Amino acid sequence: MAKKTYDLLFKLLLIGDSGVGKTCVLFRFSDDAFNTTFISTIGIDFKIKTVELQGKKIKLQIWDTAGQERFHTITTSYYRGAMGIMLVYDITNAKSFENISKWLRNIDEHANEDVERMLLGNKCDMEDKRVVPKAKGEQIAREHGIRFFETSAKANINIEKAFLTLAEDILRKTPVKEPNSENVDISSGGGVTGWKSKCCS
Amino acid sequence: CFYCGAVFEETCIFYGLFYVLVMEFGEESSPALAFEKDAFELTVEDVYDISYVIGRDLLKISSTGEEVSDLQFRIVRVLEMFETLVNKYNLSLEELKMERDNLKSELDRIITESSSRQGTQTAGPNQLVVDLTDPNRPRFTMQELKEVLQERNQLKAQLMVAQEELQLYKSGILPHAEPAMVEVDLDSPAATDSPATVNDAKEEKTTIGKLFSFRRK
């Protein structure tokens, strides 16, 4: 094994309706690029990005889920291991906003109890097609006590800020301890060592 | 009446019919043939033929001076009832035939529709009929997809680890032997001839380190 290149490993998860831009949000963050062609995610995919926060190298393993209902059983099995979940909707798609409560219920049912949640209203560059006012996003986030950002993967608005904020929130409640030497763990369930020990002690 | 002897037009058994009958059968046709027919094949025209023949016979009797006026009225009444019954029977028969034809065509329509539907329609609630000739038909189970995705992600993770390791190696060791990438010593296996220095000892433990160790000769 080569020398460790990070101090902490955080597992994040992106969820939300099909077509809201989860993959694009992730692609912008990991590769700083944007692709207009829509390719529906099959089941589950992931990307890795290492960031530095408070002098610590944090490896973010970000799981990108398919929004389509038919992949539901595959995607929900990945909720358990997530330390942070980004719930994405599309500000030009009212239905994707209405479904937020459904996605929040999924989190309650399948994720760890102390998972860090965040709401993103994506495609905020398309002001002329907006159907969900920013205030409505802020309101629902407030009701559930979670952070909210309006983002644009295309125009690169708030993408990095959202991921770094979520990582900071997780870091804040992570006990200071030496990271174990495990590398990228791609298993679906099982949770995270060190993370789980904190919430279950 | 010249034929039946009725005094009033209303009582004549040919009232309203006579001219039609004469025109239809002419001289040579024989109204008496209606008597030979099967009862269920009688038409209302046959009833008029029968009436004509009976009327003619009544005329013969009355011409001999017999008093047949009451009988004459009763016969007319019976013939009228006969006419109504035959008329009604034929109309009902026609209606039933039409009804039968309608039901037949409706049945044919339903049969062809249901047989053409069978390929694409759902077989029942929550069931889907799959067209085996469709190259894009669903073939794999959710479990199979889950396993394939897990393997894909596992390999992706391994590739990332390998890339990271390579990056470490490049940044840490390569500066001393930059153009050495193509130098491969085919005579001796890479693992056997590595006089590793103390500094490199740690790196040699990785597979990639071993594979590339020949470059430092």
UniProtKB/TrEMBL annotation, chain A:
It is found in: Cytoplasmic vesicle membrane; Cytoplasmic vesicle, Phagosome membrane; Endosome membrane. GO terms for biological process: protein transport. One of its GO terms (molecular function) is GTP binding. CDD domains: Rab8_Rab10_Rab13_like. The keyword Lipoprotein applies. Keywords: Cytoplasmic vesicle, GTP-binding, Lipoprotein, Membrane, Nucleotide-binding, Prenylation, Protein transport, Transport. Its cofactor is Mg(2+). Belongs to the small GTPase superfamily. Rab family. PANTHER family: LD44762P. This is small monomeric GTPase. It comes from Perca flavescens (American yellow perch).
From TrEMBL, chain B:
Residues 145-172 form a coiled coil. GO terms for cellular component: centrosome; ciliary basal body; cytosol. Residues 112-133 are annotated as: Disordered. Residues 137-206 form the RH2 domain. The keyword Iron-sulfur does not apply. Keywords: Cell projection, Cilium, Coiled coil, Cytoplasm, Cytoskeleton, Protein transport, Transport. GO terms for molecular function: dynein light intermediate chain binding; protein dimerization activity; small GTPase binding. It is found in: Cell projection, Cilium; Cytoplasm, Cytoskeleton, Microtubule organizing center, Centrosome; Cytoplasm, Cytosol. InterPro entries: DZIP_RILPL (IPR051241), RH1 (IPR034743), RH2 (IPR034744), RILP_dimer (IPR021563). This is RILP-like protein 2. The lineage of its organism: Eukaryota, Metazoa, Chordata, Craniata, Vertebrata.
